[in-house]
Amino acid sequence: MNSTSSIFLLLLSCLLVLCVQGEPSTGSRKCKCLNGYIGRVRPELLKSEPRVYQPSSFCPELEIIIVLGTKEKCVNPESRFGQHVLSR
């Protein structure tokens, strides 16, 4: 192998490592809200700020996740509370 081939293989290996590091873990390659939405939300029971996930190549849906008690729940983005969260 000559030095040009060695440099090319080294460069190719580095690029491959960089590409793989940018990939998300297998657990995040799908939508988070697969089991439906909760009905009504009492804002005083929220434990933290709602998290909004915009549509992406991994999940085409807009998702809003809140924490009630110790559980994460999904909110319908088209509901009154969902619209309130999105308008902030």
TrEMBL record:
InterPro entries: Chemokine_IL8-like_dom. Keywords: Signal. GO terms for molecular function: chemokine activity. GO terms for cellular component: extracellular region. Residues 30-86 form the Chemokine interleukin-8-like domain. Residues 1-22 form the signal peptide. The keyword Phosphoprotein does not apply. Pfam families: IL8. GO terms for biological process: immune response. This is C-X-C motif chemokine 10-like.
